[in-house]
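Lay summary. Proteins are chains of building blocks that fold into shapes, and those shapes determine what they do. In this project we predict the shape from the chain. Here is one chain we studied, written as its sequence of building blocks.
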Amino acid sequence: MTHRLRMAKVQAIRQLHALKWSARQIARELEIDRGTVGRYLRQLRNEANAAIPPAGPEGSNAATFPRSPAPPVEGSDGAGCAAGKAEPNSAIPPAGAEGDRAAANAAIPPAGAACGGERQPAGRRSACEPYRELVLAKLEQGLSAQRIFQDLVDEHGFKAAYDSVKRFARSLGREAALPMRRIERDAGYEAQVDFGQGARIVTAEGKCRKTHVFRVVLSHSRKAYSEATYRQTTEDFIGCLEDAFRHFGGVPRTVVIDNLRAAVKRADWFDPELVPRLEAFCRHYGTVILPTKPRMPRHKGKVERGVGYVQDNGLKARQFHSLEAENQHLLDWETNVADNRLHGTTRKHVGKSFAEIERPTLLPLPLERFPCFHEAQRKVHRDGHIEVALGYYSVPPEYYRRTVWVRWDARLVRIFNVRLEQIALHLRQEPGRFSTHPEHIRREKINGLEQGVSYLLGKVKGNIGPQAHAWAEAMLVARGIEGTRVLLGLLSLGGRHTASALEKACQIALSYKAFRLQTLRELVKRKDAEEQQPLPFLDQHAIIRPLDDYAQVVADALERKRASEVRFKRHGWAKEYRPPHNTNGPAGSDQQGQADILPPRSGYPLSGCSPAEPDSVSPDASSVVPPPSPHHPPEENHEDE
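And here is the predicted shape, written in a compact code that computers can read:
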């Protein structure tokens, strides 16, 4: 679907074309696509039956808009402007919406703009125009548009609305923008750094690679250094900056950079955070890096123009076969061309100004170059180590499962905390190897075998005694390496048995040259059984009955039992009872026959009675006294029952 313009813009295109404006100028002025302008111009040329102008004086009814401009012509003067002025009796624009006419009038620039005169804003004249100087003076005082409106109403009887004053003050504010301030620095104080696009590298195989050109400009003398790189990493940035300092023969006090990721970890105008490796580089050279405000390239305008200068003059329309060839060309160009020019701003010879004024003010270079190392963050593993280039290095136990900074080179591995304080230093290990400092292992994780035999023998002598120490030494001589675990077992026995018992057991075992731990366990158990102490609950207490009373009760019970086995009396008869000599003999071996045993009387308690009563004992063959014979009367017994 073809986009159609409003009638006002179509008439504007035709009017400007009649004034010999090109399609590009018309499209730029009306802010529409150049193809759209060409389409309407082709329609204008293809109109075969164009309307014939009515009869009358020439140009009396020209279909033109007021204040139509003439096309811009180089070298035109004020006389040429008259040709572009509209006739006093210009025709009124075609009928249409009032907004279309206003848009057409606003789209057509004034005649003075095409002739080099001051371009007036389109639209009606502001009601505040008679008070321009007054409004400007109040704006310089810092008054708001509301305050200016109130003063105009009170002091000058202003009749227009507040919005008129607000729009007028806004337009004056745009016109009264402050000019850019140029800042010059003292000699040796500042250098500005930036990257730009370099020349292409075309190898012998026909491969093409893009490059970046790094440029440093000293702000006072405009002395510069350029170097081409393939990437913009932290290593490349530091290397190029160090080469620049060596080329200058000194170090500036401050270095202004933008917020490139290779140098700035977190952009902040008030408190930026640099990459830790770059901070170490600044400490090594004694300089300070100051990033600019984000999206504010004019803070380093000297190097911005310097990058454009090396691109346009030194590298444009050139290509090289290697990066070294491009860098050699840049070095020669800086020495022979850039340093020998008369700078357009300072109007001084760059090379002489640097050699005579700025170079003596630079800080001295350090004796050694900045050590080339790699840097990265690592998280501490569960085993208390970090991985660096496939090697493993220990850290203090308080950094378990935390993140640390690591810097490593061909010889050393340095570990830092988040405040960049060094917490560990290791020699570089081969891939797969571990480097563990003993102080990085917690004491709870160090077993006795790692402590060594001397440590274990000292604990045996100190915790148990000399006899155990002598047995342990003899055991080690007899059993060798496997005896170290026996030492651990001996120390564990010290937690369950007394030192005196272990000393006695070790003395006995040494006399028999028994060097098994099981032998010591048996000897200690036997010694403990002999020296077993009474249980605590058997001790004398105020509310506990003495043991002598219990002993007397037991003795009385035993005495009564012996007395009951000697004589029984029953219903006026008694007979001495003697136990049989052989109770386990065959039946019939007992001298007392079964005939002497009588069945119990009807008044005799049954066998199911409680044994607690004296009469509840059931008769048996060994305890029943035989009844008297009818031929022998019972003897009288005068004893009390």
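What the prediction tells us: The two ends are 143 Å apart (CA to CA).
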